[in-house]
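*Target chain*
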Amino acid sequence: MAATFDVNGARAHFAALRQKQSFMDNAGGSQTLDAVADFLWEYFSLGDEIILSQLDHEANLASWVRLATRKNLKIKWWKGSAATETTTDPVLTADNLKPLLSKRTKFVACTHTSNILGAIHEIASIAKTLHETCPDALLCVDAVAYAPHRAVDVQAFGVDFYSFSWYKVYGPHQAILYASPKGQKAIQSLGHYFNNEAHPNELSNQLGLAAGAYELAASLPRVLEYCSPRDKFWEGVAAHEEKLQAILLEYLNKREDATIYGKKEADSKLRVPVISFTIKGWKSKDLVETVEQKSQYGIRYGHFYSHRMVTDMFGLPENDGVVRVSLVHYNTEDEVRGLTKVLDEVLQR
């Protein structure tokens, strides 16, 4: 890296660092969130309650389920606005969180954006309600499906733990974790005692047991350059992605044999262009494989590690699940129109 690299310029992209918050790197979002669960072992006591979103990727669930079993904690499952298995567009809100909160609530885990539904959850509102109702409780957010589509501001969100993978944001195979001051105090440090004494309340010393992958971290300034200027870039992404998802959603909404999982509207304030659906009379696996045989489009099928939602809430077969089309800002409107044409050809067979 050039000797003139501006470290302060790079750090300026992370608002939290201005208030001496710290970050750690890890191999991926799943591993990072699993580490948080291990480091919070001493934070929980017998009889504490934790609330887990059933809309989440298993990365933000499995570790907490294991911890609850080992520590005899009570799990409350948060299904959002889904009242029945026939509801295909559940959303997490502060209002549907409130009935689950109690004086024993110690922790809440949820996703910022569902990796199947594409729904954007109002994390700032959820955090505010949780912390006002249960001041000692912590909020842990999986942002892996949100970060590639919208700007991240952990200070504005009011979260205690927030993680995403850089490789989802056009960068290296490396994850990042933010912890609030309250979150850091709750952590049982696994770092060397002399580092903790010399650098108290620094997440990298609390959780980082070895140096990060420098060769990967060296690429991050280029990712930030690509995503600059920050506000203009992400506003442009949201506007473009709304056009992309509008094309596919309009097509699916017109099909009587299609069931869309997630919001049917293309409003970029409500969803990102991760669009999942099933077609009556078709296995998701068969549809995906047929599309890929006839075209160059890469779409996927399955539960995408949101197993509890796909199987328990939607009642879909775990070995088939939904068809998922994942769009990002570098896709074109013509590409999406081309996909609808291929779908039309396949589904007319």
Remarks:
- Residues 230-254 form the longest helix (25 residues).
